[in-house]
Each structure stands twice: as C-alpha cells, then as structure tokens.
Amino acid sequence: MLIPYLQVDGLTKSFGDLVLFEGISFGVAQGQRVGLIARNGAGKSTLLDVLAGIEGHDRGSIVYKNDLRVGYLRQRPVYPAGLTVLEACFHETNDTLQLIREYEQCLETPGNPGLDELLDRMEHADAWNYEQRAKQILTSLHITDYDQKVETLSGGQLKRVALANVLIGNPDMLILDEPTNHLDLPLIEWLEDYLTRSTATLLMVTHDRYFLDNVCNEIIEIDDRTVYSYKGNYSYYLEKREERIEARNTEIVRANNLYRTELEWMRRMPQARGHKARYREEAFYELEKVAKQRISNDRVQLNVKSSYIGSKIFEADELSLRFGDRCILDKFSYIFSRYEKLGIVGDNGTGKSTFLKVLLGQQALDSGKLDIGETVRFGYYSQEGLQFDTQMKVIDVAREIAEVVPMAGGKQLTASQFLQHFLFPPEKQHSYVYKLSGGECRRLYLCTVLMRNPNFLILDEPTNDLDILTLQVLEEYLRDFAGCVIVVSHDRYFMDKIVDHLLVFNGQGDIRDFPGNYTQYREWKTAVDSRKVADGKQHTADRRSEGRSETVDRRPSTVDNKSRKKSFKERREFAEVEQCIASLEEEKATIEAALCTGTLAADELTEKSIRLSAINDELDEKMMRWLELSEIPD
Predict the structure, then answer these.
(1) What sign has the CA pseudo-torsion 559, 561, 564, 570?
(2) What confidence score (pLDDT) does residue 245 get?
C-alpha cells in the first residue's frame, strides 16, 4: 500500500470576486510523479504557493505526512541582494541546513551540550559534504562562479540556482513550478534524467510535454474548477481526456434535448405542493446546470490570412558580429526560402536571440550584408516585449491593434472572436490587464503579434509561461500559417511539431544546418557521439594501422565535398583530429570518474568542473571538423 504524503480536501482560494479553485481534493502518495495541468489563470502557481504555505487559503485542509521533507521551486524565485551564489544555496531552510546550524550553535555554546548526538546526526545526514554537493549540482547546471552576486544573475541563471537549492537538500517530495523555463535543451534533458533516477515523490507544473511524458506517471487536470486524475503519463492523459470530453459533450446534448421537454412542463405546471412535482422541479434545476454548460471545442482551426509574401525573403551574405572575445556570427551566409519553417537551437549564450535582432535590424553588424525582401512583414514575439497599459481592458488592447482580423477565404473575425480562439472567453476579455496571470499576459501579447497580419513570424521562446492548451492552439495556427517562421525554443515537443529544419548554434560563430526536427537531431547526435567514442577507442588500439573502412551517415553540412578528394594537408589534419578526439575522450572519462567519487576537495572540484566544460566545448568543435573532413573522399 502506498504511503500518503499529501492530502488536499475541499480547498478553495479566491482573490476578491475571482475564484481560482473551489472545493478541490486530491492526494499524492510516496513514489508518485504527478504533473498538474490547467489553463493559464486557473491558479496553478497559486495552488503550489498555497501547498507550500506561502499563500493562505479560504477553506479546506492540507495535510502532509509527519516529518516529510518538502522542497519547493517557485516559478520566479527571489533572493535578498548581496548574497553570492553559494550563499543563496544556504539561504533556504531545509533539514540538513537546520542540522548544520544546530551543530554550529552547539560549538558556540559553552560545554557543547548534545554534541555527540549532533555528530551522529551530521554523519547520518551526510551534512559534512553539503557544500561539496551544492557545488556539484551547480556545476551540473552550468553555474561555476560561486562568488557571483545573485542580483547580477539573469532570470535563467537565478532559476538554476533556485533549482540547485531545492535538489541539494535531497527532499522526500519535490514541488516544482515550471522547472524547465529558461533552461536550455541539454539542461532540460539533464534534469529529466535526474528526476527519472531520483526516488523523490514529485508534484510539478510544466508546459514541456516531452518532460511530462518521460517523468510523470500521473496527471492531475484542473478544468472549470474541477479536478480530474489520470493514472498515466501525458500521452495517456491526452487519450483519456478526449474520451472524457466526448462523454461530457454527449451528456450536454442529451441534457439539452431533455431540458426543452422539461422546460415546457415547468411553464405549464402551476406550483404544486405534491412530493412528485417538487422532486421533478428540483431535478429540472439540476438538469438546467448541465444543459447550460458549453460544449468543449479545443480543435479550433484558425486560418488567418497572412499578407502576400514574394519569392525573395532575405539573403544573409557573410554576416559577422563579435562582442569582445565572444563571436556570434562568423561570415554566416544563408538564403531563406518562401514558406520555410526554421528552428534555432543551442546553449544559452550562443547568440540565438542576438541573431534574431540582427534579422530585424535591431542589432548592427560588424560586417556583411542582409538583404530583406520588399514584401516581408515581420511579426516579432520577444522575451522582453511584454508591455501593456495594465489599466486597459483585454478587449481594448486587442482593438487598438485591429477591430477585425482577415481570414482565409475572404472571411473576417472580430477582435473579440479572435481572442476567443486563443482562450479568452467574453468575461475575461472585459477584465483589466492587471488582473491577468503571467501566462494570460503572455497569451495576450501573442495575440497582438498575430493580429497584425504578418507574413514572417519570428518567435523567441514563445512557449515560456503558456499553458498546454494555448500551445496546442498556437501549433495549429503555425502549421496552417501561409508565411515564413523562425522559432527559438527549448520546448522539444513544440519544435518537433512546427519546424522543417534546424540551425544549430554551437557557440563562437559555429552554426550548422540540420535537415530535420529536434528529435531527429538528437537521435543523429547521439549516434554520432556513440560512434565517435567507439572510433576513438578503435583508433587508439589500431593507430599504427594504415587503413580502415569508415561509414558516413546523414549529417548536417554547409559544404558539398563530394566532387573532390582529400588533400595531403586534409589527410594529415583528419588523423590529428581523430587522435585529439581520442585523447579528449580519455581525459573526460577520467575527470567524470573523479567527480563521481565524492571525495574531491572544493578547489579540486571547481578546477575539474571548469576543465570538463572546456573539454566538452573542444570535443564539439573537433567532432564537427571530423564530420566535415570525413565527407571528403580519400
């Protein structure tokens, strides 16, 4: 029998006349990995704040198992200014930190009362290695400057510090609010693997559907203030939710048919005192509640008419851009095709957002030429572009952009109808902007971009803070969009649905074109990495052998090398690159083994972590050069 960790009964929370959730009940037991799904504005983050004791609630009960250690990651973590990264990891209270503070207080007390017991507890909790564990997890999350002040961190860096803070304490139960926001793709995959291997019970809000599918074994959905539970992952949830909606819609249709008959009886029947008549009258009012529910229609197609786009889109010719030692573009050339849907991926800091600003003319180049077609009308959704007059109503924000939106086939939608397609019902449209949740503001911003009738959409992290239902609407919109699209996103599911191919930003101006979506890219890269390791080992064993056969698989390339043979210089470089890869792989394996021992001193840990990061960067560079040379016949 599963041990109950958390039981919520009859929970209600409101802000003034806005009821977020009412009388909801659910439980989380040991070992469960629960994903919480709801529309923006339904109170997901507020619910997690209530469960964590940060927010109060109106009615209901929240009961945790005694002595349960709970770690909570807020959607937007806040730390006092002046703390360093490492100090921030000691700022939040958890059982281990509390024990460390008790120990330090004991040492400062004359006679050291209870010291023996505290020493045993410190040993049992492995508290002596707390700082070392903190540094290991921070390094895994690509945070290596432990003395950096928290107020100088970016939003993504701060989220990673907060995530490390939660994981370091090794709690029994994790409550995570959008843990993948602001993480790049390798870090999302690292966190996914970490949580999959962890024994911690999990309650999580995330819009990352692959993450939900791979990590969670139960989905809880809040829909129309009602809780629905699905004992399976995200794919199972989609299937069962569809069955629930179809059954509910059938019930509404049946109720409407019966309602018309009963309504005639109510109008004809004088108020009777008989028991049977009163029973039928009460049943009528219950039937009326069902009949007046709206039939769900989440598969709305929004065929917006985009403005005409000519055959010439844009041509980039030898673009170069540097910021000091950091290279963003290095003689980058590209010709964009009509109706192309391009995804851009890469680690944080490789220049993805800067590249978009170059295309839009917001960032000057060091050299090179960018030629934009005369018919191109950009629609730009940026990470920083969310600016509204909060005293305006939602509908007035939309009407300032356009009273009507042209649709395919000569049809039109009013601003109000367009907002309804993006899940703003009439009552929400007449609400003030300041009453919207963060996700609802993002959704409204997206609407203002799409309503301008662009033919070239540039979307920089459009999935952050959007709920899954909005993402589904946006995916349908982009699939039918008769124009060009560039998407920068860390949402793997979203990228797979939308893009035809990828530009992979490897850093320092190294940009590669991959002909496929993100999942295909990861499969290819995993296969290449595995083969690279195998080839490196084989080359070490047979390095005196003069020849060997090689297999070249499908890979990204910007140069056609099939029409020529390797030069003497390229043959020599190819051999040198292979030797270098083998040597780097061997050094990497040695460092990783040392990091896993848990016996390194703090300075050794820092030194090896920095070296490991440098090795990974060098391996990526050498691998890409190896791939280029391997395409040229001997």
Answers:
(1) positive
(2) 80
CATH of the domain at 490: 3.40.50.300
Instruction: Tell the residue number behind the tokens 């539970």, with chain if given.
Output: 229
Q: What is the H or E stretch that residue 314 is in?
A: strand 314-323
Residue 581 counted as domain residue: yes
Average pLDDT, the chain: 83
User: What pLDDT score was predicted for residue 562?
Assistant: 46
Both tokens of 384, joined, read: 């920083």
- Please tell me the distance from the alpha carbon of residue 135 to that of residue 143, in angstroms, as a whole number: 9
Q: Give which of 515, 479, 510, 529 is closest to 186, Cα–Cα.
A: 529
Beta carbons of 249 and 295 less than 8 angstroms apart: yes
- Whose structure tokens read 């920068």? 488
Asked if residue 502 lies in contact with residue 521, where contact means CB atoms within 8 angstroms, the answer is yes
Burial of 22 by CB count in 10 Å (0-12 exposed, 13-18 middle, 19+ buried)?
middle
Domain total in the chain: 4
Residue range 24-33, pLDDT digits in tens: 999 999 999 9
Assess if residue 582 is contained within a domain: yes
Picking from 474, 495, 516, the residue at the C-terminal end of a domain is 516
The answer to whether the CB of 287 falls within 8 A of the CB of 258 is: yes
E strands in 336-445:
341-346, 367-372, 378-381, 404-406, 412-414
> Quick check: is 549 in a domain?
yes
For the ranges 64-73, 500-509, 617-626, the lowest mean pLDDT is seen at 617-626
Flag whether pLDDT at 420 surpasses 60.
yes
What is the structure's pLDDT at 560?
Answer: 46
Q: How far apart are CA 599 and CA 16, in angstroms?
A: 55
178 and 249, same domain (yes or no): no
Give domain status of residue 307, yes or no. Answer: no
Q: Are 269 and 277 in contact (CB under 8 A)?
A: yes
Is there a single domain that holds both residue 10 and residue 140? yes
| Full residue range of the structural domain in which residue 268 is found | 238-291
Q: What is the 3-state secondary structure (H, E, C) of 67-100?
A: CCCEEEECCCCCCCCCCEHHHHHCCCCCHHHHHH
Are residues 133 and 23 both part of a single domain? yes
Token pair for 63: 């009961």
Report yes or no: 172 and 200 within 8 Å, Cβ to Cβ. yes
Which helix (H) or strand (E) element contains residue 619? helix 602-630
Listed residues 516, 533, 562: the one ending a domain: 516
